[in-house]
Design brief:
This protein is of the alpha/beta class. The chain is about 35% helix and about 20% strand. An eight-stranded parallel barrel has the order 18-19-22-23-24-25-26-27. Strands 1, 4, 5, 6, 9 and 16 form a six-stranded mixed sheet that branches. The two termini are about 30 Å apart. The N terminus and C terminus are likely disordered.
């Protein structure tokens, strides 16, 4: 989901008392793009020169230190620690404003930056061109090589690769969806999907071409790579490291920790936030989660025309509901809980229809929400017969779905897992605990589920883990980003589940954004019944919930009637006591 990220989301993190941040060396990084004179000029990634000056002044007035990649490398090696308030400032795409507006400010403030260049843009046409949905700046809007060399000589600007020709979208499925070129196996109507070998070769060739170009023009090869659109795969990361890139810059809005190198997460400020917004963002997870279930079977996936019409209607309904996350089934479950087939190409199961990639991408981009995919590991194991086949299935799922999360059920040990720091809510804490978990100590079913998730995450790094459990334990899982407790749609039983959650501390401020309820019904609930349960949950402090079943074509529950209770846009946060 493309949300408005305010600049101080991470800039204020080092000022908080949270042990998970203060005890670990870290920095924050910011990804700017074009700098314009007036608000409304440029695109949503542009900032005005006045707001940029205000940001630089705020950094200087509040004892922040602008650092370089050398500072991060020295801290990682133990040669010199990072300053207490360290910020890495970056500019992407090489807009002309980098030379005309930013560079004079760097000289005045003595602030170092990292600037990323797209190789084939530098020698492209003079005028701006459109390639599919991508707008590619013409050379009249970009810096020249002479200006690049002047800035490099100043010692204040280190130039990074933004790839040679991967800063665009590419055909990704039979329905015509175009997705970030570095993050997908390309699809061709005549040849089908790119193989992993071809994908690796395409990525490596591009990165080496970019590296050679910068070496030729600037006399030094880049050591940093900035992923276009912040999208990449583990395969792409492996190829980048093999091509001698040592810093890989992403767009994950979180602090940078030295142990997470070579990844450098960055905050992307959009819609020209003013200085007040830049320094007033609360430091806590604060996004209410609304999950809607979507079964591809309801969209008539084997009828191309009906499928597109039905998918469009489902997306509009998601927007009306005010949902934040859509949970999409990745496979078709038949009798005896066996998987009859999948909605994505894979090596181990029949494919009913290749529609999952299209659904996930269209929902993400048109509805502006996150997407979680759901594939029951226990059913996959019963159908396939071996653990290795299940792991391969999830790896293939990762290649097909640019999803934000994977939802698993029937994982009691993972759902109940607790540690001494289980209350720490930030995604980097959860990821750290998950990476250190000894899977061999888990029961076989949970161990396989974790391996299946890691297979998906190896393709899609930084994927979130959601778990669904029927049991209210000591708290939300310490190794899951979201723990959902199954609840029936009935006032008394639902209220009992909510009471147990509150009594166990799940509704405490440090836990409520990592926990919620999943309302299970045999048929879609009425808007009235759903609203009663949701409002009860909200009154007790709950902020994350979803339901299954849901019928997008019959509009059940009625979206317009349910929205006042379920919409994240209308959700009133409870006042602090």
């Amino acid at each position: 989901m493309r949300v408005r990220l305010l600049l101080a989301v991470m800039l204020l993190v080092p000022l908080t008392p949270l042990a998970s941040v203060r005890a670990r060396p870290h920095y924050v990084a910011v990804a700017f793009h074009d700098v314009v004179d007036r608000a409304g000029d440029g695109d949503e990634n542009s900032v005005t020169a006045a707001n940029l000056v205000g940001f630089f002044e705020w950094l200087r007035g509040n004892d922040w230190t602008a650092i370089t990649l050398d500072d991060i490398a020295r801290a990682q090696s133990g040669a010199r620690p990072l300053p207490d308030r360290a910020v890495l400032i970056t500019f992407d795409d090489g807009y002309r404003s980098l030379y005309t507006r930013v560079y004079p400010l760097l000289l005045a403030y003595k602030i170092p930056i990292v600037a990323a260049l797209v190789g084939n843009w530098m020698g492209g046409p003079a005028e701006t061109v459109r390639r599919g949905d991508d707008v590619i700046p013409g050379t009249r809007l970009l810096i020249s090589w002479d200006e690049t060399r002047e800035m490099a000589r100043s010692g204040l600007v280190e130039f990074a690769s933004h790839t040679y020709d991967l800063h665009h979208s590419q055909l990704a499925n039979p329905q015509g969806s175009e997705m970030p070129a570095a993050a997908i196996r390309a699809y061709a109507r005549a040849a089908g999907y790119e193989t992993e070998t071809s994908y690796r070769q395409r990525i490596r060739a591009d990165l080496e071409q970019s590296r050679a170009l910068l070496q030729k023009e600037l006399g030094v090869a880049p050591r940093a790579l900035v992923w276009p659109f912040g999208r990449y795969t583990q395969v792409a990361q492996d190829e980048a490291l093999a091509a001698n890139y040592r810093f890989l810059l992403t767009l994950e809005p979180e602090p940078g920790f030295l142990e997470d190198m070579p990844n450098v997460p960055r905050l992307l400020p959009v819609r020209n936030p003013d200085l007040r917004s830049m320094v007033s963002y609360p430091v806590a997870p604060s996004t209410a989660v609304r999950l809607v279930h979507l079964n591809p079977q309801t969209l008539s996936p084997t009828d191309a025309a009906a499928f597109e019409k039905n998918l469009g209607a489902a997306i509009e309904r998601v927007k009306t509901l005010g949902a934040t996350t859509v949970v999409v089934d990745a496979a078709w479950r038949g009798p005896q809980d066996r998987l009859e087939g999948t909605w994505f190409p894979n090596r181990v199961l029949p494919m009913k229809s290749d529609v999952l990639s299209r659904i996930v991408w269209q929902v993400r981009t048109r509805a502006g929400v996150n997407v979680a995919v759901s594939l029951p590991v226990s059913d996959a194991r019963a159908t396939l017969g071996t653990d290795d086949a299940v792991v391969r299935l999830f790896e293939d799922l990762g290649y097909s779905a640019l999803a934000d999360a994977v939802l698993f059920d029937n994982v009691p040990a993972l759902a109940a897992f607790q540690t001494d720091d289980s209350s720490l809510p930030f995604r980097w804490d959860v990821r750290r605990r998950r990476s250190s978990l000894d899977a061999s100590r888990l029961p076989a079913a949970d161990d396989l589920t974790l391996r299946a998730f890691l297979a998906f995450e190896r393709v899609r790094p930084r994927t979130r883990l959601f778990v669904l459990t029927p049991t209210v334990g000591d708290g939300p899982s310490a190794v899951a980003d979201l723990t959902l407790v199954e609840a029936p749609l009935s006032a008394k039983p639902f209220g009992e589940v909510v009471n147990r959650l509150a009594a166990a501390g799940w509704m405490q401020p440090d836990r409520r954004y990592s926990s919620g309820v999943w309302i299970l019904t045999e048929k879609p609930p009425s808007a009235a019944a759903l609203s009663i349960d949701v409002r009860l949950f909200q009154r007790r402090g709950g902020v994350a919930f979803g339901w299954q079943q849901d019928d997008p074509l019959a509009d059940e529950p009625k979206a317009a009637l349910a929205a006042p209770a379920v919409s994240a846009a209308t959700f009133p946060l409870l006042p602090k006591k």
